[in-house]
Amino acid sequence: MANKRDLKKDINYVLGDIIEAVYVWELANAEKPTKESEAVIDEAITTFDELITRVNDRSVENKKTHFKTIGNDLESKGRGLIEKINKLK
Q1: What is the torsion angle, in degrees rounded to the nearest 10, for the CA atoms of residue 13, residue 19, residue 49 and residue 57?
Q2: d(Cα 87, Cα 56) in Å, to the nearest integer?
Q3: Contact 86, 78 (CB under 8 A)
Q4: Dihedral of alpha carbons 30, 36, 42, 47, sign
Q5: Are 42 and 18 contacting, i.e. CB atoms less than 8 angstroms apart?
Q6: pLDDT by residue (tens digit) across 32-51?
Q7: Is 69 helix (H, G, I), strand (E, B) or coil?
Q8: Domain map (residue ranges) of the chain
Q9: pTM reported for the whole predicted model
Q10: Of 86, 76, 83, residue with least CA distance to 50
């Protein structure tokens, strides 16, 4: 079972790295519009807020399953955001 502290760190690192990758893309492609890249950053921030809220939910009965589900959601949403970064033109 992932503990709460490690799960929060994972969420922070994964989504922070995704946002950093978008900033790197923006610097490398300064002449291109950033509306799509800003949308990816906004989605990453929204995902962060959502996942942290779920981690801090104390009304959960089975914490092991709850944290595992959050970890799986982080992985799937992180991959989705990475695919969006790769599709930026």
Answers
A1: -20
A2: 33
A3: no
A4: negative
A5: no
A6: 778 999 999 999 999 999 99
A7: helix
A8: 4-87
A9: 0.89
A10: 76
Place of tokens 């996942």: 51
CA 63 to chain centre: 21
The rounded distance, in Å, linking the Cα atoms of 68 and 43 is 22
Q: Which two tokens stand for residue 11?
A: 């969420």
Which tokens hold the place of 46? 């929204």
- Residues 63-88: tens digit of each pLDDT: 899 999 999 999 999 999 999 999 98
Q: Could you write out the three-class secondary structure of 22-67?
A: HHHHHHHCCCCCCHHHHHHHHHHHHHHHHHHHHHCCCCCCCHHHHH
